[in-house]
Amino acid sequence: xxxxxxxxxxxxxxxxxxxxxxxxxxxxxxxxxxxxxxxxxxxxxxxxxxxxxxxxxxxxxxxxxxxxxxxxxxxxxxxxxxxxxxxxxxxxxxxxxxxxxxxxxxxxxxxxxxxxxxxxxxxxxxxxxxxxxxxxxxxxxxxxxxxxxxxxxxxxxxxxxxxxxxxxxxxxxxxxxxxxxxxxxxxxxxxxxxxxxxxxxxxxxxxxxxxxxxxxxxxxxxxxxxxxxxxxxxxxxxxxxxxxxxxxxxxxxxxxxxxxxxxxxxx
Length: 267
What we know:
The chain folds into 2 domains: about 15-85, no CATH class; about 110-265, no CATH class. Helices cover about 20% and strands about 30% of the residues. It has helices at about 15-25, 25-30, 85-95, 150-160, 215-220, 240-255; strands spanning about 15, 40, 50, 55-65, 70-75, 80-85, 115-125, 125-135, 160-165, 180, 185-190, 200-210, 225-230, 260-265. The strands form 4 sheets. The chain has a 5-stranded mixed β-sheet, with helices on both faces. Strands 1, 4, 5 and 6 form a 4-stranded mixed β-sheet that branches. Helix 1 (about 15-25) crosses helix 2. The longest helix has 13 residues, at about 240-255.
């Protein structure tokens, strides 16, 4: 009996040079040839179904210190790329991690717990996805023991965030920063790496945060997330988006709000 040696059907996969360099030529070629590649998948960005037999699909490699996870996404959502993330954040993408709250690197642990709220905000008749970041305690400048003040806003302004005088005005883009959505969940806010290196997590979720379908839809439409930040006690936990908007406007009026627009990671 002669065994048929029909080759696998090539998938419509995009494998960037960066991804190829990480996984090796052999594995990249196997993926492109249709081996080790899924037919159907859930897009790692928008979380809706995709089919690499029918539509252009990106390979996205999430790389930590010791772990790497290969994911797939619609090419229209995210181009093929390598995304450098913290090891514990990456592990949170593949299993549920409980324990510590997210922290700002460089600040004392008791001062560094952040609350992050996702919501939709209306600007000029268009709905935009937003994140609101508020610490649960004053933030001391890294390298200091704290002095009873709060350096959260000055630190962010030094990073390029701008004070918000009018919530109705769209924040300016902050170069090098981005918001990482993976497998339909919020994983991190990324900032530029030192010396022009790969992005690193400024804020990371130890357990990926759910966002609404409407939020994901708006994010995929605009490819941009508006990130607002305010000192402790400025916003609070608001049960409705209209109340969140009111709290943002009050914080802005009191000079206690900064913001920046950031693309989705990889866009």
